[in-house]
Amino acid sequence: MHEKGKAATMEELRHRLREEILSNMDFTSDQDVSDEGVWEHIDRAILRECRNRTLSLDEKKHLRLSLFHSIRKLDVLQELVDDPTITEIMVNGTQNLFVERAGELFQLDAHFESREKLEDVVQQVVAGCNRVVNESSPIVDARLPNGSRVNIVLPPVALNGPIITIRRFPEHPITMERLVAIGSIPGKLAEYLQTLVAAGYNIFVSGGTGSGKTTFLNALSDSIPADERVITIEDNAELQILHVPNLVRLETRNANVEGCREITIRDLIRSSLRMRPDRVIVGEVRGAECLDMLQAMNTGHRSMSTGHANSARDMMSRLETMVLMGMDLPLSAIRGQIAAGIDIIVHLGRLRDRTRKLLEICELTGRTDPVTGEIELRPLFSFQETGVTEEGRIRGIWRKEQPLECTAKLSAAGRRLPEVADTEMPVGAA
């Protein structure tokens, strides 16, 4: 009870000092609106306060940083955004704040002091990436300067106040070597996929929410030859391809009240094909843009993308549905486009022990079943559970199912696949 009372007192002090600092600042002065000027105002306010009450060194440090975050940054969210152990931040109105650490959800005591302050933070986020959100357009996707993905939903759609969901990505891209080290994929199988990427196979990464699709796509992209011209297309720029000099990054744009029209994934894919790409990477397909992606694949453009599905087979059904969202075509024609365009499906999953694993690699041979009309999927590798450790970690083995049938692109690129045998997950993999 004493700790709660103390926290409330510090919150009241922070609120009062913040209002005092803002009232003393001259927003027409370059000095006052600079970060250095804000720090000076904060230090003077804390010094004045210390004449009336005793604050410990830790309290002064925390108060100083908290005031700066409240005035210049994202208020209570800034410390969470800067915390590398947090992967997800969820704000449900002013009072309810949740974070995800190591796959587990926690509710925090922190909260926004008012709805107005939360709305100020919302506008600060969207302004930073040239987006607009308001009552007439209450849903927006944005990103923070550190690359974190942000989804915002405002009233009247959100009934319990402004909702912010932040997906925080690592400061440094997770490499394939790191995925091998944590047991998400065995080393030889990683080398197998890297060879397919370098040879120009069209690869589609599927998986459920939080299964690591974007991370895996980024790791695969490291194997793209550095002399290629690569174009990335995303709703919010998340991919971090650092080794390709000839890189073009495209991002969608929402329509706004100033009359700027919406620029969609479909628009960007069509435009990218006129940019002389060697490879087109679409961050994720969710709807009608799937048709444009398949057309790119079927006109000689090497491509990679991701999509939501529960299995590699389910991904085929979802792709069919997404194409139908863009154009009314016979199902046989759609299946023909998918079978001819995509070479490899890589399916990821998040297991019940919260670890992320590569679960399936399947080959599309370009054929469809003459009886059912379904696309032929040839499983190349699959992950099978073999038990559970004392710590509750799932044990498993990646089994080789069949050899790759379509090897023409490998031969044309002068590459050979490594020999991959059944591989058990290493002891201690997280």
Task: Walk across the major sheet and give the strand order.
Answer: 9-8-10-11-7-12-13-14-15-16
CATH fold descriptor of the largest domain: Rossmann fold
From the alpha carbons, calculate the radius of gyration and give it in angstroms: 25 Å
Proportion of residues in β-strands: 15-25%
Largest β-sheet summary: 10 strands, mixed
Structural commentary:
This protein starts with a helix and ends in a 6-residue tail after the last strand. The protein is of the alpha/beta class and 430 residues long. It has 3 domains: 1-72, no CATH class; 73-171, 2-Layer Sandwich (Beta-Lactamase), CATH 3.30.450; 176-424, P-loop containing nucleotide triphosphate hydrolases (Rossmann fold). Strand 10 (279-282), helix 11 (289-297) and strand 11 form a beta-alpha-beta unit. The mean pLDDT is 87. The chain contains 14 helices and 16 strands. The strands form 2 sheets. It has a 10-stranded mixed beta sheet, sandwiched between helices.
What are its keywords?
Rossmann fold, elongated, 430 residues, Beta-Lactamase
Give the helices and strands, then pairings.
Layout: H1 2-24, H2 30-33, H3 35-49, H4 57-72, H5 76-81, E1 86-92, E2 96-101, E3 104-108, H6 115-127, E4 139-143, E5 149-153, E6 163-167, H7 176-181, H8 187-198, E7 203-207, H9 213-221, E8 230-234, E9 247-251, H10 265-272, E10 279-282, H11 289-297, E11 302-308, H12 312-326, H13 331-341, E12 344-350, E13 356-368, E14 375-388, E15 394-400, H14 408-413, E16 423-424
Parallel strand pairs: 7-11, 7-12, 8-9, 8-10, 10-11
Antiparallel strand pairs: 1-2, 1-6, 2-3, 4-5, 5-6, 12-13, 13-14, 14-15, 15-16
